[in-house]
Structure formats: structure tokens, C-alpha cells
Design brief:
CATH architecture of the largest domain: 3-Layer(aba) Sandwich
Low-confidence stretches: 29-53, 210-224, 237-241, 261-266, 525-538
Structural class: alpha/beta
Distance between the termini: 33 Å
Largest sheet: 5 strands, parallel
Number of strands: 18
Shape: globular
CATH class of the largest domain: Alpha Beta
Mean pLDDT: 77
CATH topology of the largest domain: Rossmann fold
Oligomer: single chain
Amino acid sequence: MSEQNIPLILIVDDFEQIHEDFISILDSPTSKNSADLESAFFQDVKKKPVNPTKYELHSAYKGETAVQMVKTAKMLETPFSLCFIDIRMPPGIDGIETIRRIWEVDPDVQVVICTAYTDYTHKDILAILGERDGLVYLRKPFDPNEIRQLAISMTVKWTAGKQAALKTQQLEKMVRERTAELESALIKLKKSKAIELEAQRLRLLKIFSNSLYKDLNEPMHHIEEMMRIIQEKANQIESLTDEKAISLQVEQAATVMKDLRIKKQDKIEEFHGIIGQSPEMLKIYEELRILSQLDFPILLQGESGTGKELAASVLYKLSDRTDHLFIPVNCGALPPGTIESELFGHAKGSFSGAVRDKKGLFTLADGGVIFLDEVSELSLEAQVKLLRVLQEGRFFPVGAEKQIDVDVRVISATNKDLRQLTKQGKFREDLYFRLAVVPINIPPMRERRKDIPLLVRNFLERIYDNIGFPTPEMHPETMRVFKNYPWKGNIRELMNVLQYISVSCRENIITNQYLPEEILAGQEREEDEYTPVPGPVPKLTRRILTEALDQFDGNKSKAAKMLGISRTTIYTAIKRLGI
């Protein structure tokens, strides 16, 4: 972010007029909702609030210049959040090469590819650069509203990621500093008189415990017991005169503090009902926490069974709309002929069987939140009305002559690629940009295998408590089967399998004999491997790759360096092995 806490955007194009157009579009006033979003997101509590409707715009007329500007901004710790880049920029490097070099300098920069030519199709670009969240393909001529929506959604997404990373760094720094204080105190304690040692020990322990509770605002279930022990030591009233005994006390406390480093990533097992502590889920928690306080539409994307409705309910529970209703709607389950009537209501006599006025779900959700699951199943007619609600906050019930005004936050979800559906004419592009102001991708279970033991334990406790039997443990070999199974149905499939097991298993340990045949037959084999050609590693097995990723908390660059392979190889292996 810039010094004034305004998002930095870089326009890369060889035509002067394009730069003037972008400046005109992005410098123009946005809607009230846009201003509210940017004001809530980009304000700096340590400085005076800035105009939330502005971006800090920079121009580059050559690809080489853009790369140097991104590099300089990164060095100055004021990185660009978003680049709009043209494909053709003679006589220097083209837009594709510019993007590749920019990502080598700063892989976090988000990019919108702008082109009026067909030199590169969307498929060609994905083949060259790979598919990633921070890459959008945009054809000329541009719609100003589309440019504004992209600028808002992509800078908000970029900022959420930066805030999550910054928070983690602050936690790590705090633990390192407090541990160093205790270690330094231990050295001083050994050189002081007994009474002075005791006073210094108690003072440092009190400082640490107070600062820990003050600085960490997330649930700390895993370290509460350690803090209780520390506080007991700090509250001891007997006088210690033996210097050796005092040193032992401080060493024990210092050991507890060091354990915080290990426990830091494990402290969160669930977030308002969502279970998981993998890096992927910690990022989702941070996004949900931030976006719950904003009032923009959210699009939850993910495979069936990943928990999109649960994520939507968390956005509702943490928001200021809990005094009103949260209404989930499965758009795919609504009969085609009644979708508009169900969502927006109808007037008496508007069609055969309409014997009275009926309120629609949007009217019932006034002041609250409506969750549109499988939003891709809406008819084009219903999409038009939904777009009007998002734009103006009003709609006509079927057959009615008077409009209804509503204040509803819309959260939608899909397991399909809405971008692809817009290209096929099955989903309105303007509605897509309205719904996906800030998209959140919910990862499937195969991308968060670290969470599987935690999910299994939690679900087993629920199931066996419900039927009144002690909760059994899972045999390590059976747990290995669970971790290797692809779980195409994700969490929903996992829950069904555990319920199946509970019907027959009354033992203390769950073994493979209680598993459904399809689980044993469908598990991914441990010997599955990917052999990079050429490369220094002859066999890159699932176990080796998983252990390397776990060792570095999912950091692919560090795992690749440790294995002696390139990042490209590790990405290919992850895709090949389905990790």
C-alpha cells in the first residue's frame, strides 16, 4: 500500500488515450456502496482518513518500464496491488512477457489482461501463465463500470491477503520478542541475588501474560492451559532463596513460552463452526472476518460439499444484520416456473393459482441476508430482476404494478465456473460482476488434507454422542486411508462415511473392516509418483511431496528448494498427484 494507504494501480499500454481513459474511469466518483467498502477497508487508524473513492494511478508505456516500476515499488515496500496490461506493446516485450517478468519480481501483484486482438485467446493465456485467482482476461472496448468493479474487488482481495500475512508476522514477532526477553532474563537471573531474581522473574512473566492477552484477539484454546500455569507461577507468594530453584522456575516458564511458537498454528481448530487449521483455512477465516463487516455482495466458489453455506452463515453471524433473517435458497431446487415468484413474490391473480398476494424471499429477508446457493441455475429472466435488486435495491413482484424497496445483502455460491457460463451466454456478465465483487474460493478436502484428522475426530464425537456410545479412536492405518482418499463429495461425503461406520462399529478403535468398500477401493495409492524429466529427484512420491509441504506449512517455493526441484516441477507434481 502507498504511504497514504491508497491502493496502487499500474496501467501498462503504449497508447496515451488508454491511460487518460483509465484515469477518467478510476478517478471518477463511485457508488455509495463502493465508497463505504473502500473507506472501511483502506482507512489507516494511525493516520487521517483518506478519500475512499480514489486510487493512486501510475502509467507505463512499455513492458520493460512496468517491470522496473513494480520492482522499485516492491523495494520501497509500497507494492502495486493491481496492473491493467495491454497485450500488444511494440517495439518492446509484449504483455504476456511483461506479466511473466512482473510475477518474477512480485508474485502477489494481480493482473487484468486487456486486449482487442485475438493473438492470444483466453485459453492460450492460461496455457502460458497458468490459472490463478489474481489473473483476469478483459476484452476491449471496456465498460467503465466493469473496470471500477474489477478495481474494487481485486484491490480488496489483495489487501485481505496482505492483512492476513501481516497479522501472522506480528504474532511471530511478538512470540520471538517475548521468548528473547525470558531468555535474557534467565541469564541475568543467574547472576543476581535470589530476592532480585524472584522479583524480576515475576515482573517479566506478568508483562508477557498481559501482552499476550492484549495482542491476540483470536481464540486461544490450545494455550489457555499454558497461560494458567504461567499465571500460577507469577502469583506464587512464598519467598524463594535458593538461586538454583529460581532458575529452574524460570527455565520451565521459558520452555512454555517457546512452545507458543509450535502451538501458534494449531491454536485454531474451528472458526464459528467451520473446522480446520490448515494454512488454506486460516486464510479463509481472515477473509470472512474482514468481509463480514462490509456490505458488498460475496460470491463463494467451491466444489459441492465444501461448506459454502456454512461460510455464508458465518458472514451473517459476524455482521450487523443479525437482528434480521438469514434466508438460504437453493436455486437449483426451485421449479423453473416458480423461481421469480419464490424470490420476488407475486400479486393476486397474476397467474393461474395466484389466489392471494405472496411475499417473496427477498421481501422476507429485508434488512438481513439472502444466500443464493447454486446461483448459476437461475433463469435469464430471474437474473435480470436480481441485477435490478443489486443495482437499485428494488423490484416488481410478479404481476404487481408497484415496486418494493428492500435492503438485503446478497451472498451467492456456485460449484460452476460462472466466467465460462458468461462466455456461453448462460449467465449475464453484468450480473457476474455484481455478484463477484469479492469472490472467496473454498478449497476442496484434497487441498487441505492436514484438516482430515481434525474433521474426523470432530464428526465422530458428534455422531457417537448423538447415539449414546463412547467415541472410538481411529487406527493410524485407517486414518491413512482417509487421508489418501480423494473425497470427491468433500465434507458431505466424509460425514456420510462416518455415519455409515457408526452403525456397525461399537469397538474402541475403528479399523479398515468397518469402512465401505468404495473407500478402500478408491483410496489413492501411496506408491503414486511423479517423475520430473529432467530433474535431480528420480521419484517424487505423494508421501515425500506431502511431508515436504507440511514441513513448510504449504510453502511450495521452500518445499521445492528443499527437494532440489523447480517451482514449476512441484506445481506439476501437485496437479498430477491430486494433492
